[in-house]
Amino acid sequence: MNSLIKRLPQRWPLMLACIAVFFAVSIPIARRTTVFIHHLLVWNLFLAVLALVFSVLMHVSKSRALAVLWGVGWLLFFPNAPYLVTDLMHITYLEFYGHDSGRMVHYIWPWFTLLHLAIGVLFGTMMGLCSLSLVHQRLARWLGGVWAWLTVAAVSVLSGYAIFLGRYVRVNSWDVLSPGTLIAQMAQSANRFSLALTGMYAIYIFAAYVVYYAFCSPRRTDV
Q1: 3-state secondary structure (DSSP) of residue 37
Q2: Phi and psi dihedrals of 82, rounded to 5?
Q3: Disulfide engineering: 110 pairs with which of 94, 123, 162, 180, CB 3.0-4.6 Å?
Q4: What is the per-residue DSSP string for 121-173?
């Protein structure tokens, strides 16, 4: 079976077309609604695209040192993909129906908004899992199957913690450029809740990838 990376060039036009359509639909949504989540959703999706780009560069790099460098870039941006799931918390403001003179009235715009969020989350999740698959394949060639899987598990834990930092401490990927401030924020926010949320999202990321690996990964026998 052909490797995923050999099939990527054929899929890029379709993938880019889908993302372009999503961004085009996002424009009227962002203009009509005052809820800033629609703007943030597009931004977070763009960061998820960067993670996929870094994983592709790591996968095709012939230099191990350069591949490691791309891998570090991927690790910094990868948590933005599973982080998109947390954007669904913003659907609580939507009102899908109301009452007028005793009659139930249904609203179409909230459903459109819900679909916008759901599609963005779906795109981000799939790109994140695809990028993790590419990194997993490269690690399997370097370290062997067992260590590659252990690394996937470690990445899941780190990403789960990054999701907590992003949602509750409001840390971004580029905050690693200010390590002193970042470490202080991490120390101040350490508590049982951070540990619980990290564990929950670590399990979610790892489980989602196992499903992707079992049904979608084109090189299961290699890793």
Answers
A1: helix
A2: -70, -20
A3: 94
A4: HHHHHHHHHHHHHHHHHHHHHHH-HHHHHHHHHHHHHHHHHHHHIIIII---G
Instruction: State the residue for tokens 């060039």.
Output: 9
Q: Write the pLDDT tens digit of every residue in 68-82.
A: 999 999 999 999 999
List the helix and strand counts (H, then E) for the chain. 8, 2
> Hey, is 172 helix, strand or coil?
coil
Structure token digits, residue 19: 């993302």
Polymer length in residues for the chain: 223
**What pLDDT shows up at residue 102?**
64
Q: Where are the beta strands (DSSP E) in the chain?
A: 97-100, 103-106
Look over the chain and give the mean of its residue pLDDT values, rounded to a whole number.
Answer: 82
Per the DSSP assignment, residues forming a β-bridge with 105 are 98
Q: Whole-prediction pTM value?
A: 0.83
Burial of 90 (0-12, 13-18, 19+ CB in 10 A): middle
